[in-house]
Amino acid sequence: xxTETAGFVLSIIAIVMTASIIKSFIRAKxxxxxHRGRRRGRHGEETxxxxxxxxxxxxxxAELKGQVGRLEERIAVLERIATDKSRRLADEIENLx
Length: 97
Description:
Helices cover about 80% and strands about 0% of the residues.
């Protein structure tokens, strides 16, 4: 290999290494994980814990949405009772008996 080719190869290696260092610095600065994929050990456990918490919060969110829906229905009934004329309300109560 001649000197010119060796210099070219070394410059490409230097560029790639510099880009990798800059990329790692930017990722660390903004809190992006440096490595992707599943890892064992502490990071893997944190990922599993985070997924578990998301799942628990999603379940709780679904339960709360259902509860809010039921409460909205009850409020609608109470509003109808409060704003209805007494005669109509009495008729409905009698029909239920």
